[in-house]
# Entry
Amino acid sequence: MERLLVVDDDDAVRHSLSAFLDDCGYHVMHVPSVRQALNVVEQSSVDLIITDLRMPGEDGLDLIRTLQNSCSSIPSIVVSGAGEMPDVVAALRLGAQDYFIKPLVDLELFEHSIRRVLERTKLVQDNAKYREELEETNKRLRHHIEILQSDLEAGRNVQQRMLPAEPLQVDGYKFQHTIHPSSYLSGDFVDYFLISPNVACALIADVSGHGVSSALATVLIKNEVMRLRTRWRTGQSQTVLNPSLVVAHINKELKGSNLDKHATMCWMMIDFEAQQISYANAAHYPFPLVRVDDNVRALEPDGLALGILPEGNWQTHHLSWRSGFSVFACSDGLFEVLPGDKLEQKEQQLRDMIETNQYDIRQYADGFDFSEEAELPDDITMLMINRQD
# Structure
């Protein structure tokens, strides 16, 4: 129920007006002076003030002015017997919502004005409340965005530290990589390392989706790779020497992690002395390309992605070379920025690149003609291995 305050020094007018408003369903308070009105405002909630203009001592204009100076949002309606235009203008300029002349002839119109002022005031108050809530929500949102950006940056730093620190060069062979991160945490991963003086392993993986869970899946893959290397060095297992067993092992760990993520992966083992590459491809696409001598071949997959089923049917395949050898592998984010509408066109661009036999992966990146400053829709990861004849 709206609370109205009637201010009038005429007892008869004040009581009759209060009785009428009480019959209209309002909670009505009434006082004979401005000073008493201000006391009521300080001590209780008032939704609307209806005030006479001419009163002994402080008048209605003084009341409206005091409320305005105190930043009060209580609206006011003037009911006065003076009826002079300067008084009307002065009251409206000070913020009065309406002005009526005594005696009130049309009480229905008067009550309609009260209702209209109350509705308008409520609308203004609601809008102010909504603005405050919106500002607070925006403030919290900006804070959350700052935290998210900080977390994303921290996640990227962790991912970067999991990558090879520098290219690997051994016996005339060079292993290189580059990653162009998107604006999201995602699951691209690449690694390469020696397991003996004449044998090196390399892998490229792409975890599904974006966000923290995808990044955690790359951490899991990195940890499992390190575990396999440690078990090889300590003589506990030779799994790291068999690409299909490596893929099966990581599949088991990823499936059991409950991250609800799957990953494509191509694991390669290069024997420099035997001049042979052994590999297992778990649905990684685009297919890694290998140039052996003068022929370019795709390392096509023969099993599902990792993390889908508890077990899979991956095989280890072998390719040998006599002189020329190079490998180019990338994540599917590269297809997002390559020109052309068809996959065949984009696949051919990759073949064209490896056939040029460039030795610097930066030349490959420059050849794809995308800006490192651009906001990428997905991570772009590239791995290159070649023999520098």
